[in-house]
Design goal:
Helix content: 40-55%
Number of strands: 9
Structural class: alpha+beta
Strand order of the largest sheet: 6-5-8-9
Largest sheet: 4 strands, antiparallel
Length: about 230
C-alpha cells in the first residue's frame, strides 16, 4: 500500500473526513451566529420603530383633577397627551359614574361617555364636573371605576387601553387655597354690586332730602306771592 508522509491512503481519508466535519461544524456555528445577529438586528429595528411610534402616537388618558378654585370638587378629564390627534375616541367607565347631586342631565348620560368623540387634538382635553368630596362621603356611591379606552391615529392604527380611577386615593389630602382669576372676577362682581347698592341708596336719600325741602317751602310760596310791598310816600 502506498504511503505519503508516512500515512496510508486510509489514514489520509480519515483526516480529510475529520477536516471536512470540522469545517461543517464551523459553517453551522457561523450560520447560527449570523442568524442570531440578524434576529437581534431585526428586534432592534422593531424596538426602534415601536419607540418612534410611542413618541409620535396619540396617547389618551382618563383622570380625575381637582378644581383650582375649589379643591374639594373634582373633574373627570379625558386628555390627549400624545403628539398626534386621536380619532373615534370611546370612553367607558364601569360602573357608570354618578354625582352625589345629579342635575337635569345625569353624568352617565353625557355624550362624551356614550358616543365616540370624533377627534381630540394633541394637548386638548374634555372635562366635566364630577363631584364634591364632602357630598360624596355622605353617599354610598362607588369610589373605583374601571376605564376602557379605544381610539385610532391618522394612519388607522388602533389603540385599546385599560385603566382604573380610584377616587379614594384623593381622600385625606391637604392643600393651600389658590386664588385664581375666577376668584378675582367674583370679588370684582361683588364689589360692583356693593357699589351699585351704595349709589342707589345715596340717590334714594338725596331724592328724599329734595322732596322734604320742597314740602317745607310749599306753605311759604302763597304768602310770598300775595303779600304787598311797603308803601312809598
Amino acid at each position: 500500500m502506498e504511503r505519503f508522509w508516512g500515512l496510508s491512503g486510509i489514514a489520509w481519508t480519515a483526516i480529510y473526513t475529520l477536516l471536512t466535519f470540522g469545517l461543517l461544524v464551523v459553517a453551522v456555528w457561523a450560520a447560527v451566529y449570523a442568524k442570531r445577529q440578524w434576529e437581534v438586528a431585526q428586534q432592534g429595528l422593531v424596538d426602534v420603530r415601536r419607540a418612534e411610534m410611542e413618541t409620535t402616537r396619540p396617547f389618551v388618558i382618563v383622570q380625575v383633577e381637582h378644581l383650582r378654585s375649589d379643591r374639594r370638587a373634582f373633574d373627570l378629564v379625558v386628555r390627549n397627551i400624545g403628539r398626534r390627534p386621536a380619532f373615534d375616541v370611546t370612553v367607558k367607565l364601569t360602573p357608570p359614574p354618578q354625582r352625589s347631586r345629579e342635575d337635569s342631565t345625569p353624568m352617565s348620560e353625557l355624550r362624551m361617555l356614550n358616543e365616540p368623540i370624533s377627534m381630540i387634538a394633541p394637548g386638548q382635553d374634555l372635562r366635566t364636573l364630577w363631584d364634591d368630596h364632602a357630598d360624596r362621603h355622605s353617599t354610598d356611591l362607588p369610589w373605583r371605576h374601571a376605564v376602557a379606552l379605544s381610539y385610532r391615529d391618522s394612519l388607522g392604527n388602533r389603540f385599546d387601553e385599560e385603566a382604573v380611577l380610584d377616587l379614594a386615593a384623593m381622600c385625606g389630602i391637604q392643600w393651600q387655597t389658590e386664588l385664581t382669576i375666577h376668584d378675582a372676577a367674583k370679588s370684582l362682581g361683588e364689589m360692583t354690586a356693593q357699589m351699585k347698592r351704595a349709589v342707589s341708596a345715596q340717590e334714594t336719600a338725596l331724592r328724599g332730602l329734595i322732596e322734604r325741602q320742597n314740602r317745607a317751602l310749599e306753605p311759604r310760596r302763597p304768602e310770598a306771592e300775595g303779600g304787598s310791598g311797603p308803601d312809598v310816600q
